[in-house]
Amino acid sequence: MTFTKERSLADRIRADFPILHQEVQGKPLVYLDNAATSQKPLAVLDALQNYYEKDNANVHRGAHTLSARATEAYEKTRDKVASFINAASRQEIVFTRNASEAINLVAYSWALNTLQPGDEILLTVMEHHSNFVPWQIIAQKTGAVLKHVGLTQTQEFDLEQFKGLISEKTKLVSVVHVSNTLGCINPVEAITQIAHQHGAKVLIDACQSIPHMPIDVQAIDCDWLVASGHKMCAPTGIGFLYGKLELLKAMPPFMGGGEMISEVYLDHFTYADLPHKFEAGTPAIGEAIALGAAVDYLTSIGMDKIHAYEEELTAYLFEQLRTIPNLTLYGPQPSTDGKGRAALASFNVEGLASSDVSTLLDHEGVAIRSGHHCTQPLHRILNVPGTARASLYFYNTKEEIDAFIVALTETINFFSGFMD
């Protein structure tokens, strides 16, 4: 396809997303809840339908044609994901249901078998619950100690405090790459380098970064990285764990069952080679194949182009939000060209509940998120019960931001009438 330079990235590809072309509450849909889940392009929907219509069979188990085709497509996705994040080997990619399962895999396979009483796990106060709760459970089971890096004055990762907290007792640093509430982009390369100097392993939650910017796990040098497909144009129910090869080899299986075995006897078993020893049972085959289609789709556009366009949108979003009186924005402010933070804005309007704001916006066809965004500890630190959040993706437009701002202004005016 060839497009003129005047057309934005979103203008070029919006036709690929059928869900965007509908009305909600009698108004054109403006979907600004992409940090919760992304929409799916036709290429992904077609890949999922094609599997079930033409190739539906179990993988790795059958000698017939359908099984062979399904297995080939399933395993091709592993190659695509490995290339997408620049993993050194396809064996370093383990398919999971989502990022939460990937974190739990590391928690129960590595941490539960490694950590001792007094060992320290270093997190941040901005983590998603999925990167809090598994480590809280592990700490209870092992006697490990949890520590938390706080925020700077600009509500970003406090690197200086991190340097003061980490020690030889620190065995794991588990940190989000991009905060789903603050929108800050954490310095994961520096974090990893410092952690490794102290002998600690590093896990990166990349759910909010992989869909939006180029990721190179070898440059970051992290030990593990997790992501969910549904935030990067793939279906729900599929995610992945990246882990360094030698580390994954040393970790025992997370779950037992079919697929993850080599030989089974009445009283013992041997497990399969990587990555299959971590993929017990029939996997989400269609979803994994569709994840491969999503990776192809994002790659064809170019993650650098997606990131650059979203920076442009971010600058415009914040410029417009700053025109609204009595509105508090959370996280670091972007530069004038949108650099320095992710393409989302969490905010509150003085005197209004975030849930009321999102409900009224929905009546105007605008979909945003309200609540604690699975970051309750962070919201307690911010001293607010919740926030409203508008989150962008590459198919969003400045015109949609304009529609959001108009709807938000009308919502505030509506409630102001009751408060006067």
Describe this structure in words.
The chain is an alpha/beta fold. The protein has two domains: 9-31 and 302-419, Aspartate Aminotransferase, domain 1; 45-300, Aspartate Aminotransferase, domain 2. It is 40% helix and 16% strand. The chain is built from 14 helices and 17 strands. It has helices at 9-13, 42-55, 65-84, 99-114, 133-142, 159-165, 188-197, 217-220, 245-250, 285-301, 303-321, 354-362, 376-382, 398-419; strands at residues 23-24, 27-28, 30-31, 93-96, 120-124, 145-149, 170-176, 201-205, 224-228, 239-243, 261-264, 269-271, 327-330, 344-349, 366-367, 369-371, 387-391. A seven-stranded mixed beta sheet has the order 4-10-9-8-7-5-6, sandwiched between helices. A four-stranded antiparallel beta sheet has the order 13-14-17-16, with helices on one face. The protein has a two-stranded antiparallel sheet with strand order 1-2. A hairpin with a 2-residue loop joins β1 (23-24) and β2. α3 (65-84) crosses α10 (285-301) and α11 packs parallel to α14. The longest helix is centred in the C-terminal third of the chain and has 22 residues, at 398-419. The radius of gyration is 22 Å and the shape is globular. It starts with 8 loop residues before the first helix and ends with a helix. Mean pLDDT is 94; it is low at 1-5.
